[in-house]
Input
Amino acid sequence: MDFSKLQRAFKSGENGTQIQTSNLTNLPSNILEAFIPGYSLISKVILDTFGFDVGIVVSVGLIAFALLTSITFLWSKASRLFQKYCMSSVFVDDGDDLFDGIIQWIAEQRMAKVSRSVKAVTRLGTIYGDNKVDESDDEEALDANGIFNFGKWAAKLPPRYEPYFGSHRFWHAGRLYVFDRSKRERQPSIWSSSRGDEELIELKCIGRSTKPIKALLSYIKTWSLEKEKAMTVIRRPAGKDRGRGAGSWDRVSSRPSRPMDTVSLDPDQKRKVVEDINEYLHPSSPRWYATRGIPYRRGYLFHGPPGTGKTSLSFALAGIFGLDIFCISLLEPTLTESDLNRLFNNLPRRCIVLLEDIDTAGLLRDEKSDKKDDAADGDDRKRGGSKTSGQDFNMAELTKAIKTANRKDKGGDDAKQGVSLSGLLNAIDGVATHEGRVLVMTTNRPEKLDNALIRPGRVDMQVEFTLATRDQIRDIFIRMYSNENDKPVKKQSRFGITLAPTSNGTSKPSANGLAKTPNTNGTTTPKLTNGFANGDAKKPLTNGYTPSHSAMDQHLDADLLRRLADDFAREIPEGTFSPAEIQGFLLTRKKEPLRAAEEVQEWRDAVVEAREKKAKVVSVQ
Output
């Protein structure tokens, strides 16, 4: 049989046309027609017009596309299998403090600088300055009149670039890591129906162990703490609309730790508080408390007039011991007793819980307690053991009416909402309450607090703050105007407390009314008048001030500053003004100590007169 003739017969058509053989670079027209509708017509037009068979190009393109799709599919499947069986990962959501630390650390790595997919974040800097801002930019933000233009200064601050959503690879300590940032819809919880979005970070590395990732996270956490080693973190309860569940805490801000010597309080009282907290926080204290069956908790009550430094001492203590401050407002209308219990139970191992102005929190005893109190009062009246005047009786009735009105305002079943006194007591030292925290309560009126709240075991130490004493006034003046390069001599005490020198060595005013301050050689110097010793010449300036108001005020030596502080302190009576009032007066003259010494008498008389007028108005009403 002649196969060559048979082959030629198959190739020949009935009409004598030649049939093209199929190959990989020239697919049949019916196959191409399936992928590209109208291909036959288009290819015929191109062939008749240009004499070029487009089928070869289309066939090669389709084959390349098929190969690429196959390779991509196989690579993705192999990659998923490799990640599943040969890689480990750690997830961090945006509700954790570690999330911000990771983002900041990643933003400073080379990977974030060379990545082709980054997110620009505007950095306005902190209110305490930004170490990445050139000092020359500060000078450029000042106009010809010396007015600081914040917008011009902020424009010089470059944005921060951080990796955008997706996967990014980087090397650290000789190991390859994968940083994957994604966003997902927050699932509603039993505490909140709001969804919203939440960000998620996934750190991955090659290997079946997560130890390298844990070591990296520990390194990042240490790096973040080193950046904020001189900062105190402030936290407040998270809003219920965030969907993170009841009892969560949000980091609201951080501020430089306050030095203890800036708190206007008696040095002995500060020393006792610091020593007591230091002993409580010692690593051996929990075992000591446990072996004796004592709950490992510590409470303090800071009480005194407004502006005397109660909150300032709390921040200073947090800075000394490196603790975060957790602030709770009992006046929050949506705060319930169950929320308060969860907040206390979600506290870290060591922290400071701050309840400010506890006397204004509106804590009410429950109805059972009120009935017991009313029954006790009735028994006393029957026995005649405690006679109550008409005025006292009216006040008692008025207090009871206010409590009833408050309950009615909350409306029926809602009367149980909010935080009652028993609910607060249960959160502070209940059976299941958190241990290890330092509780600080502040109040302006300790006499208004219930005895059950401040009994020993709940409040272990009470610290009384008074209006400014002579030594405190003097210390405030020196601290306000002391030069960084020429600070007054100070003595150090334990735990880093710096105590400013007192005025014990100064002499009392003499009989003729001329106060004298001892010099180092034992002689005395006359009292300063308007910033100068008696007999010194004063040349008025165009603005009406004496030369004491010029730039020379910023360069007072320590000796002159101490004498000026003594003169200033003698003009203000003890126990009359709060440290905050004195500091507020000095802040308006923060670069003019001599002017402050001159105008202190006028300010003192004006404040006293305003107080007297206010007292008369109140008495008339």
